[in-house]
Each structure stands twice: as structure tokens, then as C-alpha cells.
């Protein structure tokens, strides 16, 4: 009895001691700044406040009403939404196609193909963005050289505001599609073979089996992949930072890039905090929609 | 139908099926090969261009192979541009972050799974809710806070947000839930203290999840850009991605030099990936990793 008691009592203290270092780090360096960020977004913290806190004023929702009128912010939102709405479906389609090819029973050398297709995922985003800056070069770039073989004239990928964002979408698909490909391939692998056999017995062809077996069975995985991709894409930053600095003519200015510029270049910290809060709210939308539609993403 | 005709029809069907199968095999492999080549091409060109004599990588139309391979650009990066130091910064920061964060996450993950303490379940539920909060949200106040503490432009400052992670705690907890209680009890009956139980029972049993966590923490820290960019303006403390982005500002015209810098940045992570491919891909496939 006394022994059991001792263990439970000690267990309580030990549990706290084990969890405390991580919880302290997270509380001090994550929760505290997050809470402060929301408060900061109600102030006019700027370069003068950096010098002396006496220049700090509470402006209520002032930063948020300013956001609504800010042409630059609206451009950033439009660009980011373009990136998300055009980029995410294309990216998932490429991942899905690649996963189906990898999964096909006829396919040989699967590990080699998978490793090659997955390789860009592990690379450093900044480094490959630097590489793609040259790949997109209108005269000496690889992309235009390949397109010339197909008879497509030279495109000024990063210099023309109409194609700069599509170029960034293209680069991002190349960088990321392997990630979803691996998740979708694992999903395909977990579909029981007997479902396909039953469909075959019922006379279902390849297309019918895809529509009535593969797609429904893969629905939770597809929802998970979609939610994660949308959330990730909303945070677009390094690609435009490295390849275009948000140009030409603000065509690739993203929300996070604007937050970085406002906060860390121009020291409009209060205003930048409002941008960060707005971004956070936007990032909640995909998970909430998925939940409303009735399919919870597999992992939080 | 005579047996002969039946045989002939069956033969036709079989031959037709075999032919279709062969065509499908060729098509599937052609598509995969084309995809793999297009995927790898920019990386191959990066390596090739980094070995070209100055000016050759900006020739039009582009050249695929160096006329006379040279390591001059790597030499310039290491000697004149001090990239060896930057490389060491990246390596040190990634290693320290990995060791500290895997240790803290393992201790906490195990505590949340197997030790009872007041408030445990409520705290864990709160942590799970907080998984949706992006790192950028706290970045501005964190910067101001570290500025107040004099930690901007220090190694410690860049490490701080990575010391522990909610997702890491979550991962270890899920795994530690599967440890048989009898093993923990047996160790305690043998008189092992709680730290000893953790170190000699829990850690070995959780090895697979700890390896995955270490791998992803290392790669994530090595590849991270926004926070190091914000907190490290002193070029002597910078990590490779930050140094590379800055280098681009001054050396945009030196294509070969930039490609050598990109190779130095990317090669270690590609090496780690190729060496530990199975853990890496299984980690993602099981949905246990956020990008």
C-alpha cells in the first residue's frame, strides 16, 4: 500500500519534471509571443516605438481597418490566393498522377523512380529557388531551351508580371509534389485488393474501378493532403523573396513577404502583426471547411 | 462452336491481352522515366553549372556540360566568401537543435503518455489545439523579446523557437502509448529510478519514432529560412540559406558561383536523405510528419 502510494505521489512530480522543460520552452518562446502578437496588432508599434516605448499608442482595430484599404495588402492577398487556388489543385493532380503510376502493378524499379521524384522535397527551398532563377532565365535558361524544342517562343518568366506567378507555381509544384505523392501512394496501398476484385466481378472497367473504388477509398487521404497543401501554400515566402523580391510590379508579392517587409524592413511591427493575425485566420479556413464537409483530416 | 475455333478465339483474346499489357507497361514506364528526368534535371544542371568555367553557364542557348570542369567556384566560396564558416554554422545549429528538441520532446511525450500528473490531459488537449497556430504568428514579438534580452544576432537566438515542438511531443506520445506497462513496471520493481526507466526502457523502445523525429528536425532546421533571416544579420553567424540569398544580391551575374553555393547547401540534406530514405519516406507516408 505505502509502496503504491509512493509511486503515485512521486509519479505526479516526475511527470511534471519530465514535461516541464519542453512545456517551458513552448510557453515562453511560442505561446507568449503568439499572445503578444495579437496585442501588438492593436498598437501602432513602429520604428519610433522601437527607439522608445513611450511612442507606443493603442489604436484598437485601426491596423485592421487600414488593411482593408491598403492596396498593397489587397495585391498580396490576390497574389497569394492565385498561388493557392491555381497551385494547390495542379500540385495535387501531379502528385496523384505520379502516385498512380508508381502504384501500378506493372511498374518496375519503384524505389528508384520514387527516390528520383521525391528528391526535390528534401532540398533546401532557398537553394533550389536560386537554381530556378537561372532555369527561368529568358536567354540562357533551361526551361526556354526545352520549350524551344516544342516550338514555343522565349518567355520572360520572372520579368513579365503576367507569367511571374505562374512561374513560381511551376517551381513550387516541382519542389513539393513528391511529398503528397508519397502520402497518396501509401493511401493507394492500403485499399484492400478484394474491393477491386469485387468490382471486376461486377464487370467494372479501369475507369469505373477508379471512380467507384479508388476515389471513395482515398477520400480521407485526399482531404488531408488538400488541407495541408492549402495551409502550406498560404505561407508562400522564400520563392518570391529569392526569385523576384515580390516583383515585377508587385506581381509576386505574397502575404508573408508583405508581413516580413512591413515588420522587419520598415519596422511597422503593429501593422505587420495585424497581417500575421489575418494570415492565421485564413489558415484556419481549410481545416474548418474540411470538418464542415464531414471528413476530418487524419492528423490534427 | 467446334473446339478448334474456341481455341483460336481464346488464343486471340490472350494475345490481345498480352499486347495491351505490353503497351501499358511501356507507357507507364515512359511516363515515369520522363517525370523522373524532368524532376532531376534542374539538380543535375545545378551540379554541372557549378563546375563550368566562369561565363559558360550563362551562355545562350544553355550548355549542359562544362567544357573544362573546374572547382574554382567552390574554392572562391570557401576562401574569399567564408562559406566554410557558414556551413559550420548551419551544421552546428541543426545538430544542437536536433539533439535538444528530440530530448525535450521525448521526455515530455513519454510523460504525457505514461506518467500521471495533475492537469496532464487538459494541457495536452490545449497543445493539440495550438497545432494549428503557424510559427509566423509569434515571430514579431519573439524578435522584440530576444532584442530586449540581447539575443538577436546570437546562435542562441536562432535556436530558441526550435527547442521543443508540439508536434514532436505529439508524435512521441502516440508511440509511447504502445509501450507495454509490464516493461515499465518490471524496471521499477528492479529499483530503477524514473530517469533510468526512461533512458534504458523508453528510449530504446521508442527508437524508430525518435530517429524519424531527429531526421525531420535536422532537415527542417537546415532548410529553415525566415527566422534565421530575421534574427541573424551578422554575416559571420548566418546559415547557408540566408548567406545564399544574400550572395545572390551581389553575385547574380556569377551563375557558376551561385550554383556552387546551391550545391554546398543542398548536398548534405540529399546525402542524409539517400542514406536514411526508408525512415524518411515511411515517416511521411504514415502521416506522422508535417511539411
Topology overview:
The complex is a heterodimer of chains A (300) and B (291).
Chain A: H1 2-40, H2 47-51, H3 62-69, H4 71-103, H5 110-122, H6 125-135, H7 142-149, H8 161-189, H9 193-201, H10 206-233, H11 238-243, H12 255-265, H13 269-293
Helix pairs in contact in A: 4-8, 4-10, 5-8, 8-10, 9-10, 10-13, 12-13
Chain B: H1 3-50, H2 72-79, H3 83-114, H4 120-130, H5 139-148, H6 155-159, H7 166-176, H8 181-189, H9 194-205, H10 207-223, H11 226-231, H12 240-251, H13 255-275, H14 277-285
Helix pairs in contact in B: 1-13, 2-13, 3-7, 3-10, 8-9, 12-13
Tell me what you see in this structure.
The complex is a heterodimer of chains A (300) and B (291). Chain A is mainly alpha-helical and 300 residues long. Chain A folds into 2 domains: 2-40; 71-293, MetI-like (MetI-like fold, Orthogonal Bundle). Chain A contains 13 helices and no strands. In chain A, helix 8 (161-189) packs across helix 10 and helix 10 (206-233) runs antiparallel to helix 13 (269-293). Mean pLDDT of chain A is 91; it is low at 1-9. Chain B has 291 residues and is an all-alpha fold. Chain B folds into 2 domains: 3-40; 79-285, MetI-like fold, CATH 1.10.3720.10. Helices cover 73% and strands 0% of the residues of chain B. Chain B has helices at 3-50, 72-79, 83-114, 120-130, 139-148, 155-159, 166-176, 181-189, 194-205, 207-223, 226-231, 240-251, 255-275, 277-285. In chain B, helix 1 packs across helix 13. Chain B is flat, with a radius of gyration of 27 Å. Chain B starts with a helix and ends in a 6-residue tail after the last helix. In chain B, 41% of the residues are buried. At the A-B interface, helix 1, helix 4, helix 5, helix 6 and helix 7 of A face helix 1, helix 3, helix 4, helix 5 and helix 7 of B.
Amino acid at each position: 500500500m505505502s509502496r503504491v502510494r509512493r509511486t503515485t505521489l512521486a509519479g505526479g512530480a516526475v511527470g511534471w519534471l519530465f514535461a516541464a522543460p519542453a512545456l517551458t520552452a513552448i510557453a515562453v518562446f511560442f505561446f507568449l509571443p503568439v499572445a503578444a502578437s495579437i496585442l501588438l496588432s492593436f498598437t501602432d508599434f513602429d520604428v519610433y516605438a522601437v527607439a522608445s516605448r513611450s511612442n507606443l499608442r493603442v489604436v484598437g482595430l485601426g491596423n485592421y481597418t487600414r488593411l482593408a484599404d491598403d492596396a498593397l495588402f489587397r495585391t498580396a492577398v490576390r497574389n497569394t490566393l492565385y498561388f493557392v487556388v491555381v497551385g494547390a489543385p495542379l500540385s495535387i493532380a501531379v502528385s496523384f498522377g505520379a502516385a498512380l503510376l508508381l502504384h501500378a502493378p506493372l511498374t518496375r524499379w519503384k524505389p528508384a523512380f520514387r527516390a528520383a521524384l521525391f528528391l526535390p522535397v528534401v532540398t533546401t527551398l532557398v537553394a533550389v529557388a536560386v537554381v530556378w532563377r537561372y532555369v527561368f532565365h529568358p536567354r540562357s535558361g533551361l526551361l526556354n531551351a526545352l520549350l524551344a524544342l516544342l516550338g514555343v517562343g522565349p518567355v520572360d518568366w520572372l520579368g513579365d508580371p503576367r507569367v511571374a506567378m505562374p512561374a513560381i507555381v511551376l517551381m513550387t509544384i516541382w519542389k513539393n509534389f513528391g511529398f503528397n505523392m508519397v502520402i497518396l501512394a501509401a493511401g493507394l496501398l492500403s485499399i484492400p485488393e478484394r474491393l477491386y476484385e469485387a468490382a471486376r466481378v461486377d464487370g467494372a472497367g479501369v475507369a469505373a474501378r477508379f471512380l467507384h473504388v479508388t476515389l471513395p477509398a482515398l477520400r480521407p487521404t485526399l482531404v488531408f493532403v488538400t488541407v495541408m497543401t492549402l495551409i502550406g501554400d498560404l505561407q508562400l515566402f522564400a520563392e518570391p523573396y529569392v526569385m523576384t523580391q515580390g516583383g515585377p510590379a508587385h506581381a509576386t508579392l505574397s502575404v508573408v513577404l508583405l508581413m516580413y517587409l512591413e515588420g522587419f524592413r520598415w519596422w511597422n511591427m503593429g501593422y505587420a502583426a495585424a497581417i500575421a493575425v489575418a494570415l492565421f485566420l485564413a489558415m484556419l479556413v481549410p481545416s474548418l471547411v474540411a470538418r464542415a464537409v464531414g471528413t476530418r483530416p487524419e492528423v490534427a | 462452336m467446334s473446339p478448334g475455333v474456341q481455341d483460336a478465339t481464346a488464343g486471340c483474346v490472350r494475345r490481345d491481352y498480352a499486347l495491351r499489357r505490353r503497351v501499358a507497361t511501356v507507357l507507364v514506364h515512359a511516363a515515369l522515366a520522363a517525370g523522373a528526368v524532368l524532376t532531376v534535371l534542374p539538380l543535375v544542371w545545378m551540379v554541372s553549372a557549378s563546375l563550368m568555367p566562369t561565363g559558360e553557364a550563362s551562355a545562350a542557348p544553355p550548355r549542359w556540360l562544362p567544357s573544362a570542369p573546374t572547382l574554382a567556384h567552390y574554392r572562391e566560396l570557401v576562401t574569399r566568401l567564408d562559406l566554410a564558416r557558414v556551413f559550420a554554422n548551419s551544421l552546428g545549429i541543426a545538430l544542437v537543435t536536433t539533439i535538444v528538441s528530440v530530448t525535450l520532446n521525448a521526455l515530455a511525450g513519454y510523460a504525457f503518455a505514461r506518467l500521471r500528473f495533475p492537469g496532464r490531459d487538459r494541457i495536452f488537449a490545449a497543445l493539440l489545439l495550438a497545432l494549428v497556430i503557424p510559427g509566423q504568428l509569434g515571430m514579431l514579438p519573439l524578435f522584440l523579446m530576444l532584442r530586449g534580452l540581447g539575443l538577436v544576432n546570437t546562435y542562441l537566438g536562432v535556436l530558441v523557437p526550435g527547442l521543443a515542438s508540439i508536434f514532436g511531443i505529439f508524435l512521441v506520445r502516440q508511440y509511447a502509448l504502445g509501450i507495454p506497462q509490464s516493461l515499465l513496471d518490471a524496471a521499477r520493481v528492479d529499483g530503477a529510478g524514473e530517469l533510468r526507466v526512461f533512458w534504458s526502457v523508453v528510449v530504446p523502445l521508442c527508437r524508430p519514432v525518435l530517429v524519424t523525429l531527429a531526421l525531420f528536425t535536422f532537415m527542417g532546421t537546415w532548410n529553415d529560412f525566415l527566422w534565421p533571416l530575421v534574427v541573424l544579420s551578422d554575416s559571420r553567424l548566418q546559415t547557408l540559406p540566408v548567406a545564399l540569398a544574400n550572395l545572390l544580391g551581389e553575385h547574380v551575374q556569377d551563375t557558376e558561383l551561385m550554383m556552387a553555393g546551391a550545391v554546398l547547401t543542398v548536398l548534405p540534406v540529399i546525402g542524409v536523405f539517400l542514406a536514411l530514405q526508408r525512415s524518411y519516406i515511411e515517416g511521411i507516408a504514415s502521416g506522422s510528419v508535417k511539411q
